[in-house]
UniProtKB/TrEMBL annotation:
MF terms in GO: cyclase activity; phosphorus-oxygen lyase activity
Organism expressing this protein natively: Microvirga ossetica
Keywords in alphabetical order: Plasmid
UniProt-listed Gene3D superfamilies: Nucleotide cyclase
Protein name from the UniProt record: Guanylate cyclase domain-containing protein
Keyword tRNA-binding annotated: no
Matching InterPro entries: Adenylyl/Guanylyl_Cyclase_3/4, Nucleotide_cyclase
SUPFAM superfamilies associated with the record: Nucleotide cyclase
Length: 95
């Protein structure tokens, strides 16, 4: 019987999604999609790179990112939360 080689590695996975995405898309789809793209480009992607992570799957308003370290994954999650909160300070409460 032939044996197949399976590569295994340890990884930390960060799962994220946008709060109230369905409501936001219903209110203004074009603006919501534009804002989500900008947020990914300006905040998420640079922080992923800084914390040695990479997107492994995008699902509408959700994403899965892989990190080689739990410490990097948690640090990235906290940094993204803080950066998004800072960007949303002046946003209307319904957005």
């Amino acid at each position: 019987m032939a044996t197949s080689w399976v590569e295994r590695r340890l990884a930390a996975i960060l799962a994220a999604d946008v709060v109230s995405y369905s409501r936001l898309v219903e209110q203004d789809e074009a603006e919501t999609l534009s804002a989500l793209k900008a947020l990914r480009r300006e905040v998420v992607d640079p922080l992923l790179a800084e914390h040695h992570g990479r997107i492994v799957k995008l699902m509408g308003d959700g994403a899965l990112a892989e990190f080689g370290s739990v410490v990097d994954a948690v640090a990235c999650a906290v940094a993204v939360q803080k950066a998004v909160a800072a960007k949303q300070v002046d946003a209307p409460t319904e957005r």
